[in-house]
Amino acid sequence: MSAQHWSHGATAAPTAPADRDRHAWIAPTVATVLLLFLAPAALLFGGLSAMATDSCGPDDCPDALMTQLTVIYSTLTFGGIVTLGAWLASWVLPWTPRWSGWRSGLAALALLPPVLVLLLVFSLPMP
Question: In this structure, is the dihedral angle defined by the CA atoms of residues 20, 21, 26 and 27, taken in order, positive or negative?
Fold first, then answer.
């Protein structure tokens, strides 16, 4: 290799593509930080929500309570898959302005199942 080619390669500064979104990291990062707190809380309180049936037993509890517990456990099961998929996709999408709306939407979607579980747990009907 000649000195011209070598020096040209060493002085050329790498440039970011013109269509790269400089703020693409914000929505996934906010979702990640919030999920660090929301997901364990949803698992803890959702797991402990079955104790709401201790006073009446699972056979004598009101239907509203049993229905809400079913929704909580279904959301914990299938919502975990939605949360993981949406969170991962918000990080993996191309970091261009074209995908910024999808990235923000997926980051918000990742937060919905844990928030729903917490809302359902804290609004359980009395047995």
Answer: negative
